[in-house]
């Protein structure tokens, strides 16, 4: 399982829907201002390449993690 971490404002609704179809699970981590919300896409290993190719073709910036980040880890990354 791979976890793609994308800032919610970085993707449009149509892109989000296409990514959701490839992911095993999609979660949105909501934060209060001044922090941004994040979309977490859990992707099976067999969908990894197709998911990454779609992100690259659409020009969507992402972070990749082999483990699911905690809410505190996401918040710490935003403070850097």
Poorly predicted residue ranges: none
Main beta sheet strand tally, sense and closure: 4 strands, antiparallel
CA gyration radius, whole angstroms: 12 Å
Say what the CATH topology is: Alpha-Beta Plaits
Sheet with the most strands: spatial strand order: 2-3-1-4
How much helical structure, as a percent, in the residues?
Answer: 25-40%
CATH architecture: 2-Layer Sandwich
Kindly state the mean pLDDT as a whole number?
A: 92
Shape: globular
Order of helices and strands: EHEEHEH
Number of domains: 1
Care to describe what's here?
It is a single chain. With 80 residues, the chain is of the alpha+beta class. The protein has one domain (2-75): Alpha-Beta Plaits (2-Layer Sandwich), CATH 3.30.70. It is built from three helices and four strands. The protein has helices at residues 13-22, 48-58, 71-79; strands spanning 2-7, 25-29, 38-43, 63-65. The protein has a four-stranded antiparallel β-sheet with strand order 2-3-1-4, covered by helices on one side. A hairpin with an 8-residue loop joins strand 2 (25-29) and strand 3 (38-43). The radius of gyration is 12 Å and the shape is globular. The mean pLDDT is 92.
């Amino acid at each position: 399982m791979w976890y793609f971490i994308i800032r919610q404002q970085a993707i449009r609704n149509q892109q989000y829907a296409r990514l959701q179809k490839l992911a095993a699970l999609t979660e949105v981590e909501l934060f209060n201002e001044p922090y941004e919300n994040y979309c977490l896409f859990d992707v099976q290993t067999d969908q990894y390449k197709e998911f990454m190719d779609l992100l690259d073709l659409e020009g969507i910036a992402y972070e990749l993690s082999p483990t699911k980040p905690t809410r505190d880890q996401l918040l710490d990354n935003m403070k850097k």
